[in-house]
């Protein structure tokens, strides 16, 4: 416990909320504390991710304790893996479940494809029950068209990464079912926050009807608009800030 608190102090982590779990000091800690899937650990090692970054130390245990998270850490500090690692682990521990479980909303197509690339590295060669590959997709124009025309089934995907407008569009057309989604992640939430985003977020949230839905937001800054929106849509959230909170 002392070590963990010392670690938190070393990167000036500011964590607030009820019953906050201790940070991890290494990816191996995830094996002992959360039975991290070996294949996931191997994919981390194969990609030379040897030590967790501060935001990963804090956010991964929070997500694995099924907490709603408002996270703020500088650009380049590894926020993507901070939400991808627990998401993949949660899918692996419920491998019999079918239907879309993870939904990641990103402000731009370019950022969405970066998240897709990182997620693909970590889910590489992982099979679920009945030898079904863990399937991650970027909601591109062509995938949207295939879903609309029922060329592919939306049941096939475990994780979808998308921009807000493309998502809202496909949901309106009833071509993507979000009722199973357990993990909803808004990345770069500060950039998502323009006038229309609050409405977009409401629309997305109302389609994610699973009562066990867990929500998180990651960004480099927490403008006051984000803070108040997060407080209104989240349940008993934990706020994690690494470094300075900027407005
Ligand atoms: P952010 O979203 O906070 O701006 P990214 O998630 O894009 O940052 O990560 C920035 C870079 O750091 C990426 O190239 C990523 O692969 C790398 N990275 C992330 N986590 C680790 C880690 N634990 N060890 C080494 N490199 C990492
Ligand atoms: Mg990022």
TrEMBL record:
It is found in: Nucleus, Nucleolus. Belongs to the DEAD box helicase family. DDX52/ROK1 subfamily. Residues 60-240 form the Helicase ATP-binding domain. Residues 29-57 form the DEAD-box RNA helicase Q domain. A motif (Q motif) lies at residues 29-57. It comes from Lachancea mirantina. The lineage of its organism: Eukaryota, Fungi, Dikarya, Ascomycota, Saccharomycotina. Coiled coil: none annotated. This is ATP-dependent RNA helicase ROK1. The chain holds residues 105 to 351 of 574 of the full protein.
